[in-house]
Amino acid sequence: MAFNLVFVVPLIAMAGQALANFSAAHGLVLVPASAWDRMHPAAVIFAAVFIGDFTAYWRHRLEHTRLLWPAHAVHHSDTQMTWTAIERFHPINRCSTFFIDASVLILMGLPPFAVVANYLVRHYYGSFIHADLPWTYGPLGRIFVSPAMHRWHHSADERAFDKNFATVFSVFDRAFGTHYVPGPHEGRLGVHDPIAPTLTSQLTYALTPRAYRRTPPEINREGSETEASRAVPAE
Ligand SMILES: [Zn+2]
Ligand SMILES: [Zn+2]
């Protein structure tokens, strides 16, 4: 978190302004600002969070492919679920998240207050679903992502690989066939990529060519077959 705050957030803030300027200069907006002005601010905020979560769902699926997995694996390397897991992201992952999510929000022409609200809601709700809670929400889990649902996303159980990509609305996973919540998760968490829990290992893993030679399912299946092959020990 500290590394990202000091070295990545200032770059992202500048890049955000540059993206907005570029969009304004070239007229790259699909929905005119006047369309949002006619709506109630609460409806605009809801639309921003819904569009933001839809975008994040597909961006997250992209992060589980060969090209972006080595950076995203750092987030999954956490072997315990706590609200601080939301801060464990590789700078490459932070940047890909920012460029994809911000580009869509800017294209949609959403007003600044709705973009900020989307960021705050999705960030703090994202922190909440990483909390060490067994809650599935019961029937409400058909609409919203619960802490149990996201815990399954971090599971070392092969049945849960590439499932539960959304942050706020579980409807996206249900609509696209990636929803998997058989109940509260009680098994092992983490990845089988060789990432040690040190700053150096977490920063350099995504910079090594060997990290890109295997697809995530190959890494995961290989690791799930034998306890001895586990690179990240549970604490
Ligand atoms: Zn993931
Ligand atoms: Zn997570």
UniProtKB/TrEMBL annotation:
<dbReference type="InterPro" id="IPR051689">
    <property type="entry name" value="Sterol_desaturase/TMEM195"/>
</dbReference>
<dbReference type="InterPro" id="IPR006694">
    <property type="entry name" value="Fatty_acid_hydroxylase"/>
</dbReference>
<keyword id="KW-0472">Membrane</keyword>
<feature type="compositionally biased region" description="Basic and acidic residues">
    <location>
        <begin position="215"/>
        <end position="228"/>
    </location>
</feature>
<keyword id="KW-0732">Signal</keyword>
<feature type="signal peptide">
    <location>
        <begin position="1"/>
        <end position="20"/>
    </location>
</feature>
<keyword id="KW-0812">Transmembrane</keyword>
<dbReference type="GO" id="GO:0050479">
    <property type="term" value="F:glyceryl-ether monooxygenase activity"/>
</dbReference>
<keyword id="KW-0560">Oxidoreductase</keyword>
<dbReference type="GO" id="GO:0006643">
    <property type="term" value="P:membrane lipid metabolic process"/>
</dbReference>
<keyword id="KW-0443">Lipid metabolism</keyword>
<keyword id="KW-1133">Transmembrane helix</keyword>
<dbReference type="Pfam" id="PF04116">
    <property type="entry name" value="FA_hydroxylase"/>
</dbReference>
<dbReference type="GO" id="GO:0016020">
    <property type="term" value="C:membrane"/>
</dbReference>
<dbReference type="GO" id="GO:0005506">
    <property type="term" value="F:iron ion binding"/>
</dbReference>
<feature type="transmembrane region" description="Helical">
    <location>
        <begin position="98"/>
        <end position="121"/>
    </location>
</feature>
<feature type="domain" description="Fatty acid hydroxylase">
    <location>
        <begin position="46"/>
        <end position="178"/>
    </location>
</feature>
<dbReference type="GO" id="GO:0008610">
    <property type="term" value="P:lipid biosynthetic process"/>
</dbReference>
<feature type="region of interest" description="Disordered">
    <location>
        <begin position="214"/>
        <end position="235"/>
    </location>
</feature>
<protein>
    <submittedName>
        <fullName>Sterol desaturase family protein</fullName>
    </submittedName>
</protein>
<feature type="transmembrane region" description="Helical">
    <location>
        <begin position="39"/>
        <end position="58"/>
    </location>
</feature>
<dbReference type="GO" id="GO:0012505">
    <property type="term" value="C:endomembrane system"/>
</dbReference>
